[in-house]
User: What shape does this take?
Amino acid sequence: MSGKRHKVVHVEVKLDDDEVDNEDGTITSKYFRKKKITGNLQSKDSMLPVDVDVIKSLSSDEYFSRMDRITNDDPRQWDRPLTKETLSQLRNNEEVPSNFWPIFSRVRKMRSQMLTTPVDTMGCPRIPVLVSKQFGITRSQMRPIDYRLQLLVSLILASQTKDETVTKAMHNIMSYCFAELHDPRGISLLSLSKVPRSTLEQLIKSTGFYKRKAFYIEKTVQKLAQDFNGDIPGTISEMISLPGVGPKIGYLALQKSWGLIDGICVDVHVHRLCRLWKWVDPQDCQTAEQTRVSVERWLPRELWYDFNTILVGFGQIICGPKIRRCNICLANKVCNASSVK
Assistant: This one.
C-alpha cells in the first residue's frame, strides 16, 4: 500500500507585530498571553553574602529549599520585571552593547513562555536527584554533601558529552556503589574513593575522553578528602585547583552547591552567541573564559545567574551553531545576525 505524500506548507511567523518594550524591561506581544508575575527576578538571598559553614549545617529539606530560592530555574520567572537598579545600569552604562537589551529581552520572553529546552529538564544540576530517585533515594533523603559531590562528578563527566549520556554514566557508578560497595547512600566520597580507576573507566565509558575523566575524578576525590574536609570548596580559586575543573564548571558548582553567584557560567552556546551578537569583541574573545571576563564588566549582577540558562536553551533550540531558525525568533528584527529583515 502506497501512502500519499502531503505537501508541506510553510507559514512565516511574524512575532514582532504589536510588540511593546515596557519600562520595566519586559516585552508585551500579542503572541503571548499575559501573566501576572510579581516579585523581582531573583530571590534577595542570591544577592547576599553566603556563609558556607551555615549551609553545611542545614538539613536536606532546608538545604534544597535554600538552593531552590537562590538558583530558581523555572522559566516562568523570566517574565518578571527587572529591578530599578538593574534597569538603570542597563540604560546608563556606556559599556552595555546597544543591541544587548533589545535582543536579550526578547530571548528572555521566548524562554519564559515558549521554549522548553533540554537544559530545563536534563541539566547537570538535576542529574544527581534524578539518578538517586531511581535507587529509591528522594531529595529529602539525600545528604547535601553527597549531592554536592555527585553534582561535581556530573559536571566533570559532562565535558563534550550530552546530559543523557552523563545520566547513564552516573547511574552506572551509583549501581556499582550500591551493589558492589554496599553503600546505602550510593555515590559518596568514601564509596567513590574505593572504586578502582579501571572500573570507573568502564562505568563511564559512554562519555567522551573517559580515561581522562576517570583520572580527574579519582584525583579530585583524593584532593577533596585531603584539602577540603571531604566537601566541595567554597571559592572559585579552590574549585579550579581540582583536577578537570575550569571556570565554567567551577562557577556552576558554586552556584548549585552553595548558592554563590560569583561569576557567569559561559559554555559553548553562550560564548558563540555573545560573539555572534557582538556583545564581546570576537577578536579579543577567542575563548569562553575571555568572553566571561568581558561580559561581567558590563552585565548587571542580577542577570549573572540566568544569563547562562536563558542563552543555552535558546542556543539549543532556536539559534544553533549550524542552523538558525530566524523565521520563528522573536528577536529577528533587532538581531544583527538575523536572516529575516
Observations:
- The domain at 93-115+264-341 is CATH 1.10.1670.10 (Endonuclease Iii, domain 2).
- The chain has a mean pLDDT of 87.
- The chain is about 45% helix and 0% strand.
- The longest strand covers residues 20-21.
